[in-house]
């Protein structure tokens, strides 16, 4: 996600960019510096020696070279960048255009203060300010949002933009599906808007709101109100908190409750809670009346980053976790960041494991972004949370869009999960899912190192991030782990598959790994445990 700061010269884009970036843990790109790097001389020199057209061409190609990434980047553009239609189109492809506006006086003062870095001009700053504002009016007006800098300080403008993004605009990701697409919305304060969104998606009549008895129940009233205001007739249903929700007994009761409440094909089921509530509600919605619609309102970081997205639903049986289920993609996912304020720290860390996984699957920018934003996430800063959830949702969304039924590509999301699932089970589920996945990712990376797929420099990068997320990087692997690993192999046509990193953003599926390598990787995970 790129945020392009656009506006007249001297309005303060360059001072604002790093201050705004801190709200999200984002990186900053100065478009002028990119041009200078390519040209091998200053922008001023380019304009004076090669002419304005050449400068504009270099500017456009610098925009074209920016790579799409789930990581957040604030781009400090030049005053003339939005003049070309193609540039505005490119900026929209990569993210949002945030306009800055100010009075003639303000722009005049800004131009006067930065005269030395600008090309020689015959015109006085005030005349230049007037002509720029007049000639580029339409280009500057074509922004996704515009902030008047007025007499506000840089900090105030940055806060206003961050608040707009976090609480008003948010992020929307559309995931393609076999029948229909899934709308993923991420921002603070979404609970109040669930009703209108569902009506917009064609939901009518009666709906069931499923919550757990503890964590998510406190948010049910807000959602109920929003549903009722939108004309949806909602019944509230409760399931036990945590994994205890994912039992056949609980599913059977939900089927009965749906029937008793008269939920039909026009309505649907709304899951409000962590991955446990989401999984059992999704499974019940997939099977009741051979399938009614489901919407997910994840209330844990793990739910927002992973479980609510992608349409996998399941319950547990005696033989193991998640062994009975269905693919049943939600119509919509509403990730309201504000509900994370009550989430226990250990659960935040658990969700962060999936965010770390996504960043490693994505690219170096996303890993760097997470490195900068991690403390913010743990402190509950909404900007850092928005960026972190967006990275995970974008990575999962783009993979799931291309492989909705786990035919191949989706295997990538199992980075850290072969050993992670085994360790989770062998620990008797005392480790959270995220803690187990953290151990699983360290194991997979150690294995990749041993097989000479990854350089030894990769694992410390992963371990540093995990440790900062208060996740384990070392553990004793109980003997029982190997039994579970072998069971995973049986479930996958006799092949033990490992998703192993080669480097950040590049992974391979590896089968038939020698037992000596498996043991050596285990030694690494157990070293100094
Ligand atoms: N379907 C998928 O693709 C998928 C992916 C990953 C995980 N999962 C499943 O998700 C489940 C784990 O989900 P989880 O980690 O979200 O845990 P969870 O749903 O079990 O919730 C953990 C605890 O947090 C509480 N809680 C939830 N939201 C809260 C809030 N906002 N404030 C305070 N407390 C809150 C809950 O009451 C519960 O006690 C597992 O069953 C796992 O198999 C599914
Ligand atoms: Zn997982």
SSE topology:
Elements: E1 2-6, H1 13-24, E2 27-30, H2 31-39, H3 43-50, H4 52-65, E3 73-76, H5 85-94, E4 95-101, H6 104-113, H7 125-135, H8 137-141, E5 145-148, H9 154-169, E6 171-175, E7 182-187, H10 194-200, E8 206-212, H11 220-229, E9 233-239, H12 248-261, E10 268-273, H13 275-287, E11 293-298, H14 301-307, E12 312-317, E13 320-327, E14 332-336, H15 345-362, H16 364-379, H17 382-402, H18 417-426, H19 433-450, H20 458-468, H21 480-491, E15 497-503, E16 506-511, H22 515-526
Parallel strand pairs: 1-3, 1-4, 2-3, 4-5, 7-14, 8-9, 8-10, 10-11, 11-14
Antiparallel strand pairs: 6-7, 12-13, 15-16
Helix pairs in contact: 1-9, 2-4, 3-4, 6-7, 10-11, 12-13, 14-15, 14-17, 15-16, 15-17, 15-19, 16-17, 18-19, 18-21, 19-20, 19-22
The chain binds nicotinamide-adenine-dinucleotide and zinc ion.
The site of nicotinamide-adenine-dinucleotide (NAD) has 29 residues, from helix 13, helix 14 and helix 15.
Describe it for me?
This protein has 529 residues and is α/β, with parallel strands linked by helices. It has three domains: 2-168, P-loop containing nucleotide triphosphate hydrolases (Rossmann fold); 171-343, Rossmann fold, CATH 3.40.50; 405-526, Dehydroquinate synthase-like - alpha domain (Dehydroquinate synthase-like, alpha domain), CATH 1.20.1090.10. The chain is 50% helix and 18% strand. The protein contains 22 helices and 16 strands. The protein has helices spanning 13-24, 31-39, 43-50, 52-65, 85-94, 104-113, 125-135, 137-141, 154-169, 194-200, 220-229, 248-261, 275-287, 301-307, 345-362, 364-379, 382-402, 417-426, 433-450, 458-468, 480-491, 515-526; strands at 2-6, 27-30, 73-76, 95-101, 145-148, 171-175, 182-187, 206-212, 233-239, 268-273, 293-298, 312-317, 320-327, 332-336, 497-503, 506-511. It has a seven-stranded mixed β-sheet with strand order 6-7-14-11-10-8-9, sandwiched between helices. The protein has a five-stranded parallel β-sheet with strand order 2-3-1-4-5. Strand 12 and strand 13 form a beta hairpin. Helix 15 packs parallel to helix 19 and helix 18 (417-426) packs across helix 21. The two termini are 38 Å apart. The mean pLDDT is 94. It binds nicotinamide-adenine-dinucleotide and zinc ion.
């Amino acid at each position: 996600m790129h945020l392009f700061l656009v506006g007249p010269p001297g309005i303060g884009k360059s001072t604002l960019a790093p201050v705004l970036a801190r709200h999200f843990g984002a990186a900053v790109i100065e478009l002028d510096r990119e041009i200078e790097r390519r040209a091998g001389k200053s922008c001023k020199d380019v304009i004076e020696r090669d002419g304005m057209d050449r400068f504009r061409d270099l500017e456009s190609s610098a925009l074209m070279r920016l790579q799409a990434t789930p990581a957040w980047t604030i781009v400090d553009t030049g005053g003339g960048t939005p003049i070309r239609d193609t540039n505005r189109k490119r900026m929209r492809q990569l993210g949002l255009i945030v306009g800055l506006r100010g009075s003639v006086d303000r722009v005049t003062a800004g131009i006067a203060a930065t005269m030395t870095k600008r090309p020689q001009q015959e015109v006085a700053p005030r005349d230049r300010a007037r002509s720029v504002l007049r000639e580029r009016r339409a280009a500057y007006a074509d922004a996704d949002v515009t902030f008047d800098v007025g007499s506000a300080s840089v900090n105030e403008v940055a806060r206003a933009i961050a608040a707009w993004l976090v609480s008003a605009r948010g992020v929307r990701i559309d995931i393609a599906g076999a029948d229909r697409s899934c709308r993923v919305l991420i921002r603070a304060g979404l609970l109040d808007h669930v009703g209108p969104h569902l009506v917009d998606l064609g939901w009518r009549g009666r709906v069931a709101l499923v919550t757990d008895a503890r964590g998510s129940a406190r948010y049910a009233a807000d959602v109920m109100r929003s549903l009722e205001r939108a004309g949806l007739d909602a019944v509230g249903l409760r399931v036990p908190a945590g994994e205890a929700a994912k039992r056949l007994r609980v599913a059977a009761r939900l089927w009965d409750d749906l029937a008793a409440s008269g939920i039909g094909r026009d309505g649907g089921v709304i899951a409000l809670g962590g991955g446990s509530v989401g999984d059992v509600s999704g499974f019940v919605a997939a099977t009741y009346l051979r399938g009614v619609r489901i919407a997910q309102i994840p209330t844990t970081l793990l739910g927002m980053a992973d479980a609510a997205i992608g349409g996998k639903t399941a319950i547990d049986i005696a033989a193991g976790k998640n062994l009975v289920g269905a693919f049943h993609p939600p119509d919509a996912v509403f990730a309201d960041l504000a509900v994370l304020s009550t989430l226990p720290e250990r659960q935040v860390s658990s969700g962060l494991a999936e965010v770390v996984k996504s960043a490693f699957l994505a690219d170096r920018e996303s890993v760097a972004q997470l490195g900068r934003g991690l403390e913010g996430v743990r402190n509950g800063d909404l900007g850092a949370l928005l960026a972190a959830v967006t990275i995970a949702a974008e990575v999962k969304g783009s993979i799931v869009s291309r492989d909705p039924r786990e035919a191949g590509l989706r295997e990538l999301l199992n980075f850290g999960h072969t050993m992670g699932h085994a360790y989770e089970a062998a620990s008797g589920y005392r480790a959270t899912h995220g803690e187990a996945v953290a151990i699983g990712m360290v194991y997979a990376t150690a294995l990749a190192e041993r097989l000479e797929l990854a350089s030894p420099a990769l694992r410390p990068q992963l371990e540093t991030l995990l440790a900062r997320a208060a996740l384990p990087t070392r553990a004793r692997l109980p003997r029982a782990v190997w039994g579970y690993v072998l069971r995973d192999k049986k479930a996958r046509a006799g092949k033990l598959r490992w998703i192993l990193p080669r480097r950040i953003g590049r992974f391979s599926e590896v089968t038939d790994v020698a037992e000596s390598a498996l043991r050596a990787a285990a030694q690494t995970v157990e070293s100094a445990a």
